[in-house]
Amino acid sequence: MTGSLLDAGQVATNVDDGVGTISFGHPKGNSLPAALLAQLATEVSTMGERPDVRVMVLRSEGNGPFCAGASFHELQAVKSAEEGTGFFMGFARLILAMVRCRKFIVARIHGKAVGGGVGVTAAADYAIAASGASVKLSELAVGIGPFVVGPVIERRIGTSAMSHLAIDATGWRDTTWAQEKGLYALVTDSVEELDQVVDRLVKQLAASNPDAMARMKEVFWAGTEHWEDLLPARAAMSGKLVMSEFAQKAIAKR
After folding, report:
1. What backbone phi and psi angles, to 5 degrees, belong to 19?
2. How do residues 101-133 score in pLDDT, each as one tens digit?
3. Which among 128, 113, 150 has a CA at the least distance from the CA of 24?
4. Distance, CA of 74 to CA of 60 (rounded, Å)
5. Structure letter (DSSP) for residue 173
6. Which residues is 59 bridged to in the sheet?
7. Which residue ranges make up each domain of the chain?
8. DSSP string, 98-165
9. Do residues 118 and 164 make contact, with C-beta atoms less than 8 angstroms apart?
10. Beta-bridge partners for 70
């Protein structure tokens, strides 16, 4: 296993019998600062090209949240709309790397997901969660909006569910809601069962035809070709909004 320390966060990779695992961790609830986002996007793209990898697992560390979303520490440090756009482009690049990867990505969701964490979950091809892995889009509560992650979440759960999640920015949706809407494919009763189910699925996929899986993934994500333009435009929207007086005050309270 290899790992690299990034702004008190870490990305680690491992390949075993056709299964490539990418794990990330950060002491602030597995939040995603810019360096961590960049490393994740790079590892997804790199592992996706490895011939010895047939399926990938994306997971986070610890027993707390799966992902707390954007790093508020970095958002507080943003001094211009250009810097803000650059930060949100980190999420755009990670989502695009996941969607364009020719390997199936299975997300292991062991705890709550917020904001960008919901986007990362939606960008996976198959997400399995443990009971208690609630979701929330908190962006509006801090004066911005889920613009960059919006397209992939909307594609996964539909416009209606996406808008409900985005508008009620302080409300959690439980695993039953997330599974019913299609964000989670399966929900297990415990983390132990989660690991068993993930392990069983990825072993099955690792023994499947890689060309067939690659073609299936192309079909699943057909119609997203314009995202290379859409997501940067959405990042610019967020970058501008994060500099507003409203957003600056709201972020400072976090």
Report:
1. -105, 120
2. 999 999 999 999 999 999 999 999 999 999 999
3. 113
4. 20
5. B
6. 23, 108
7. 2-209+223-252
8. HHH-SSEEEEEE-S-EETHHHHHHHHSSEEEEETT--EE--GGGGT---TTTHHHHHHHH-HHHHHHH
9. no
10. 32
Torsion of Cα atoms, 166 then 170 then 171 then 174, to 10°? 90
3-state secondary structure of 210: helix
Q: Is the pTM of this model over 0.90?
A: yes
CA–CA distances in Å: residue 175 to residues 36, 161, 238: 26, 14, 28
Residue 7: pLDDT band with limits 50, 70, 90: low
The 10s digit of each residue's pLDDT in 133-184 is: 999 999 999 999 999 999 999 999 999 999 999 999 999 999 999 999 999 9
**Torsion angle in degrees (nearest 10) through CA of 15, 20, 26, 28:** -150
Nearest to 149 by CA among 234, 239, 219, 74: 234
Question: Quick count: other Cβ atoms within 10 Å of Cβ 63?
Answer: 8
- Could you count the other beta carbons within 10 Å of the beta carbon of residue 77? 10
CA atoms within 13 A on the CB side of 105: 31
Evaluate whether 207 touches 65 at the Cβ level (below 8 Å): no
* CATH for the stretch 2-209+223-252: 3.90.226.10
